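Subgroup meeting minutes
Present: P.N., E.W., G.H.
Scribe: E.W.

1. P.N. recapped why we're keeping a running log of single-chain structure predictions: easier to compare across weeks, and new members can see raw inputs and outputs side by side.
2. G.H. added today's entry (131 aa).
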Amino acid sequence: MSNSTNSLTAIALLCFYTTGLQLIAQTKANAATPILQAQSRPAQNQGVCSFINGNNVNIRSLPNTQSNIVAKLNRGDTVRAVRKQGSWVQISGRVTSQPGVTPEVVKPLKGWVLNTYINGCSEDQFDRWRT
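Output recorded in log:
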């Protein structure tokens, strides 16, 4: 073999080795992803975009004022609301990404809020939780 062939072979092996290391690092990073996704995940149409309209609003474990407070949210906090039961609205998550970011990132938050403290995000959904 000539020196140029040896050099090309060495370069090819180095590229192959480097690419292999990158793939291993990427695989390890992807293996950690499910842990992160359990904490925050892209929204998958899980509920209606809604927002909290008061400060220090209690999010409760059950739809009543005697149940545990699982979180406190403030005016403008965006949530995903699932359904209404009486005067309570069930929340499935809190939006943690900036407005307009796609995909929207939602942190799981299971709880209930009194319907006077929540509005729909869009004009046609604004009063959804009060009717």
